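Deliverable D2.4 — example input (structure tokens):
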């Protein structure tokens, strides 16, 4: 089987529902974003002109991420996931990335371990948070206010301190609907509701 990796294209969005994992957000939204973000490089593998596997890099300079690596259930355990991982790692290493991270599902975990990825921390994803809390029920706070371009330098400083990554392009491209948490004119947190599931 030819496991050639090629760039994911806008026309491929229509193929994603057949890859959609249960309990994940709509991957069409994610891949539409990846296509428009200059720091992302989404890829695909096709079999008989059908998209059977996808994934993307998120290149933040010295650090990078692998994201949304998905293989069609009918084509799993045929080396497609491994080929995507190796191709994405190669892409990042060519640009000078020295640290690569990802969030692993239970299904993908064994594949990533074979590539030398190791546990760093655990993530917890909450479901149906938006449905559980209507906007009218949210108490407003004197400490939370809209983010603007004047806040960007401080938000970027906080983000670099917390993550150790240079996510300037990510934050600058997604801050317009963001909010900051500020007490005594000191910003101590931020929220970007339109980035993925909402970056805090």
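Example output (designed residues):
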């Amino acid at each position: 089987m030819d496991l050639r990796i090629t760039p994911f294209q806008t026309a491929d969005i229509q193929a994603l529902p057949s890859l959609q994992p249960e309990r994940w957000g709509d991957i069409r939204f994610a891949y539409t974003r990846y296509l428009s973000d200059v720091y992302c490089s989404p890829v695909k593998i096709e079999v008989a002109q059908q998209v059977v596997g996808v994934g993307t890099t998120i290149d933040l300079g010295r650090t990078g991420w692998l994201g949304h690596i998905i293989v069609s259930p009918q084509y799993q355990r045929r080396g497609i996931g491994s080929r995507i991982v190796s191709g994405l790692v190669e892409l990042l290493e060519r640009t000078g990335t020295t640290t690569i991270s990802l969030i692993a599902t239970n299904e993908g975990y064994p594949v990533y371990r074979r590539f030398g990825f190791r546990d760093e921390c655990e993530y917890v994803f909450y479901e149906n948070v938006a449905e559980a809390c209507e906007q009218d029920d949210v108490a407003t706070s004197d400490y939370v206010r809209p983010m603007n371009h004047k806040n960007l330098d401080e938000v970027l400083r906080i983000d670099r301190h917390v993550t150790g990554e240079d996510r300037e392009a990510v934050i600058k491209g997604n801050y317009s609907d963001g909010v900051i948490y500020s007490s005594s004119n000191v910003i101590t947190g931020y929220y970007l509701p339109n980035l993925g599931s909402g970056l805090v």
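Confidence is low (pLDDT under 50) at residues 134-138.
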